[in-house]
From TrEMBL:
Signal peptide: none annotated. Residues 39-56, 201-212 form the Tyrosinase copper-binding domain. The keyword Lipoprotein does not apply. Belongs to the tyrosinase family. It comes from Abeliophyllum distichum. InterPro entries: Di-copper_centre_dom_sf, Polyphenol_oxidase_C, Polyphenol_oxidase_cen, Tyrosinase/Hemocyanin, Tyrosinase_Cu-bd. Its cofactor is Cu(2+). This is Polyphenol oxidase I.
Length: 419
């Protein structure tokens, strides 16, 4: 693929450009001047599945072997938690890419919620953290198709910001990108570290096969279901096929992987029963005093903040599932942005991702053109508060820890889930 003529759409670089063009405003939506984007929404999973499908078809065709299938990089299991050696052992291999973080080469264990500047920790601790992160993202925080796939992105909508993205796209997907690809300079990440260039690294395709595998696990083992919304089912995408001809496909035709010619090997899924645990405490917790949202926001998050947030009172019918909403998060799309979120924890430095008190993070992979976006981030907290023994508290302590250039935040609230 690397040796094909640059004018051939099956050329490796051109395949990478297909990804770039679909994520960085290379096309407008059909019948609308709005830009099209395959990230940060419910299109993430179907578009990337089709992208891998055609990449695989092209490989099969070029090597004249239709039994060839893409491998998956199972970063969700301890044996897979480093860059797979086939991509890294031989500098002359076409699978090698020099734009990977030199501090993260094997045997460094991946950090599935990595922030720029995080240093590698003890591998066994990192593995425990990663398994809890997987459990949290796939199970605790992914109850509905909107949680898992992302929110709706329909014809005529603006390019969606990261707040619309599904749980898995945000974490671990984005962090596998930035952990692998980002070299020290935050302002100019390339290859896996930025969306436009990410498919230039051959390990991209193995990373995304595992993201795609999460879709099948969520459906087959965790009781998840696909959307039945016609706007999702009938969204069309255009790709080049193995004959270098453009073809139009839609979401509804990629839902059954056996029709696309593959199914995932049934390997162990060690995170299924490794949930996060509350930090051990000597006595019941009393919350420290901290200001409320009205005194804190709006704020530019340039240092850690504590906020005491009131819980809503239940009245009448409707969902009793409580959602923590961090709202009005403003930043420039071209920037790497990340902050971590904790609940009912004063000593966040002593808290790890395998503690229930760590809710997760908000992060943006750099892409696009200069554009200030305004988005929000939600966490399901009912089960978390239950596990923390905080069911009867009328307020909670929320701590935000910045992990990047400052981002502006306009508020925090807790509300019941809207149906
Ligand atoms: Cu289209 Cu992992 O990105």
């Amino acid at each position: 693929m690397k040796n094909l003529s640059p004018s051939d759409p099956r050329n490796f670089r051109q395949q990478a450009n297909v990804h770039c063009a679909n994520c960085d405003g290379g096309y407008t939506q059909l019948g609308s001047p709005k830009l099209f984007s395959v990230h940060n929404s419910w299109l993430f999973f179907p578009w990337h599945r089709w992208y891998l499908y055609f990449f695989e078809k092209i490989c099969q065709n070029l090597i004249d072997d239709d039994t060839f299938t893409l491998p998956f990089w199972n970063w969700d299991a301890p044996e897979g938690m480093q860059i797979p050696s086939i991509y890294n052992s031989d500098l002359t291999s076409p699978l090698y890419d020099c734009f990977r973080n030199p501090d993260h080469l094997p045997p460094t264990v991946i950090n599935l919620d990595w922030s720029y500047g995080d240093k590698p920790v003890d591998p066994n601790i990192q593995i425990e953290n990663n398994l809890s992160i997987m459990h949290t993202q796939m199970i605790t925080q992914s109850k509905t198709p909107f949680d898992f796939f992302g929110k709706a992105y329909r014809a005529g909508d603006d390019t969606p910001p990261i707040g619309i993205a599904g749980q898995i796209e945000q974490t671990p997907h984005n962090h596998v990108h930035s952990w692998t690809g980002t070299i020290s300079d935050q302002t100019n990440p390339i290859d896996l570290g930025a969306l436009y260039s990410s498919a230039r690294d051959p390990v991209f395709y193995a990373h995304h096969s595992n993201d795609d595998r999460m879709w099948t696990i969520w459906l087959n083992k965790l009781g998840g279901s696909n959307f039945t919304d016609r706007d999702w089912l009938f969204t069309n995408f255009i790709f080049y096929n193995e004959e270098a001809k453009p073809v139009r496909v839609s979401t509804k035709d990629c839902l059954d992987t056996t029709k696309l010619g593959y199914k995932y090997e049934d390997v162990p899924i060690p995170w299924l029963d490794v949930s996060a645990k509350p930090k051990p405490r000597a006595k019941a917790k009393t919350l420290p005093s901290a200001p409320g949202p009205a005194q804190v926001f709006p704020i530019t998050l340039d240092k850690p903040i504590n906020v005491i947030v009131k819980r809503p009172k239940k009245s009448g019918t409707g969902s009793s599932e409580e959602i923590l909403v961090i709202e009005g998060i403003e930043y420039d799309e071209r920037n790497y942005v990340k902050f971590n979120v904790y609940i009912n924890e004063e000593d966040v430095n002593a808290c790890r991702p395998n503690n229930t008190e760590f809710l997760g993070s908000f992060s943006n992979l750099p892409h696009g053109h200069q554009m200030i976006v305004n988005t929000s981030k939600t966490f399901r907290i009912s089960q978390v508060l239950e596990e923390l023994g905080a069911r009867d508290y009328d307020k909670v302590l929320v701590t935000l820890i910045p992990k990047s250039n400052p981002v502006k935040i306009n508020g925090i609230k807790i509300e019941f889930e809207k149906s």
